[in-house]
Amino acid sequence: MVNTHRKLILNIYCSAIILPQICTCSQFTSSSNDQYNENPGVFPVATNGEPFPWRELRLPTKVIPLHYDLFVHPNLTSLDFVASEKIEVLVRDTTQFIILHSHGLEIMNATLQSEEDLRYKKSGEKLTVLSYPAHQQIALLVPEKLMADLRYSVAIDFQAKLADGFEGFYKSTYRTLGGETRTIAVTDFEPTHARMAFPCFDEPLFKANFSIKIRRESRHIALSNMPKVKTIEREGGLLEDHFETTVKMSTYLVAYIVCDFASVSGTASSGVKVSIYASPDKWSQTHYALEASLKLLDFYENYFNIHYPLPKLDLVAIPDFESGAMENWGLVTYRETSLLFDPKTSSTSDKLWVTKVIAHELAHQWFGNLVTMEWWNDIWLNEGFATYMELISVNVTYPELQFDNIFLNNCFDVIKSDSLNSSRPVSKQAETPTQIQEMFDAISYKKGACLLNMLKDFLSEEKFKKGIIHYLKKFSYRNAKNDDLWSSLSNSCLESDFTSGGFCYSDSKTTSNTLTFLEENVEVKDIMTTWTRQKGIPLVVVEQEGRLLKLRQERFLNGVFRDDPEWGALQERYLWHIPVTYSTSSSNAIHRHLLTSKTDTLYLPEKTSWVKLNVDSNGYYIVHYEAHGWDQLIAVLNQNHTLLRPKDRIGLIHDAFQLVSIPTDVLKIVYSVGAQTTEGWNYLLEQYGLSLSGAEKNKILYALSTSKHQEKLIKLIDLGMEGKVIKTQDLASLLYAIARNPKGQQLAWNFVKENWTHLLERFELSSFPMRIIISGTTFHFSSKDELQEVKLFFESLQTQGSYLEVFQIVLETISKNIKWLEKNLPSLRNWLLISI
Ligand code: BES
Ligand code: ZN
User: Fold this and answer.
1) I need a surface site. Which of 69, 483, 571, 650 has the fewest CB within 10 A?
2) pLDDT tens-digit profile of 287-324?
3) Ligand 1, closest atom to CA 188?
4) Cα–Cα distance measured from residue 439 to residue 355, given in angstroms and rounded to the nearest whole number
């Protein structure tokens, strides 16, 4: 007992106090075997024809990185970079090779020094480097075995072209007001692209410290995760910036930029220096972002009661950027429209978007950067939490934006895809880079956030907050998995609450609803695994019979009805633990019940005329009211709609129609009307080229895409492919918009089919834009012929080795559309009195 207690205290001490900076006690499980020595015959073949000593996609854990010294010199004229690194590694188990990730890098030289070599300044021993591009790995073969528990230093010289796309260390260009095209170099690594910029252990569990040096011309500046310590002059008038060493972090969060940007700065209450960077002509659009990021940083530091651990935080608007933003620790990068706000041309919804994106990326500085998921199968721990924290932080910092109503759109949005059979569980295996990239979808972001919001409502805000702070403190500078979160939420005592034996006495005195649940031995994990391991969303069917409230749960499937032959099979083995809430006509109180079986009956405390389930739409379930349930609610709404709270009314409309995601901006509509004449369209295109505001550009591009003239739509696509007037980064949203236009539907789809290889030259197959292009140009189809055509196309891609989950989603959506039409066409015909 005494021993256990000491161990517990030691654990807490090691994880919360010592480990963050210096403990090398690692989270790796048993180290893997040297497969090579056991059976060298069955190994993959390296590029030089020799056997490559490792066959797994995941790296071995015998050697782990502690510290990277990284030097990078990009040349923005020749568009390439030379670089070198020294990785200090710890050998956990004797081995004869080191496996690293490296993708598209030319390795010039690799050497190894032991601690002794370093002490006596003995030069490094040259290593044999093997490359296995299919796994984006290199193997460094050592002449003599590396010994367990010793540290070594691996030095590698390498070079590459600055990437053409939006990943790794890539080039981005922008035009100045004077018409000059300028180039900058920028990184974007998540999830698996750090390996394109430097050989590394490119998995989230391999956290290390990074000391970065960047050589540049004097007309440029260099930025990285940490503040600059000094600048050294080098030959040829070049300058070299040395940055402070980072905290322990994953490779996907490393970032550096060489550019000529201008900035505004301010200081947060805690003393952290916050700066917003943009290209010089757009400097005047940076001020709102500074105000918002200072407010939000203050909010998060207070809310989590954990300091943002770096001395500075830069937010940079990048002219070419694939996603909306990226949370690199201390150097957050944004698409221009996600950071810049021009009061003259940006609308309230643009401001909301900028605020939301900043809130999201700053939340990642804790959820994701400080505590990282062990592996990409749990990416929802990053993205779901960042999306959930948008709600918490924006509600407090910008209450006038009424973000809690907007948050509901996340849930309504994801319900559309989660109610298809092709959906997936929140936690799902992902091994290849393509599978990993595909995890960044609405299920991780939006379902993740909605589940957290449901759990907060179930546990109470106070208990939930305490639990997540416990989780953040316990796993700081480390990695966590789902179960770690659930146990932190079950036993959300802070270390200071511990008296003895690991029990939290302070809680047992309270008598909240939550504790009633907990006293009945309700485990957060038991509830939550029904939501994270099963795909889909439950439908709660409720029938009020006098004082009895009969509840039933089933799996909700859009377009599959009880009389469909497959209905039964699709329901099998699905069961959720649903935190049901309800209010009634006779009291304002929120009643709670945990529905853990298929059916249940509750007794209402009083006679009531109506019952409304899912109070404030906090639960992730759809409700159907049987018997007179709907009629009674409609009667209340007709009589006095304010008897139901706004979010309850929104939820009722959603549940009744199962659709809502938004009225278009007035300005967008005005532009779209203008775009219907040739003069108007040409004028708008000209304005598009001239506009400095990304928000305005978005609206103009949308308007241009609504033209009824196909030759104009073709011109837009050509411009998007060319990438000068319309940037290639915007091609996906352009094709999406064109496919919404009845005159553009077929055109967009034909374009995708005919230009598939050209598209792949610009975007990776599994990238977000490519998935938008595929689904955006197909999922509105509703005939069997169209289904067949799309199917054949996907099959032809599959035979060439390209497969994406989105193919299945599209096919299922089209089938659903066909079914819906078959079912409803006769009544639609009747109703409209026209023949279609
Ligand atoms: N971590 C992501 C960026 C990302 C997206 C990396 C996809 C790898 C693949 C970032 O935090 C993010 O979520 N960005 C969002 C914007 C956000 C406000 C929802 C994006 O890029 O859409
Ligand atoms: Zn995110």
Assistant:
1) 483
2) 999 999 999 999 999 999 999 999 999 999 999 999 99
3) 6
4) 25
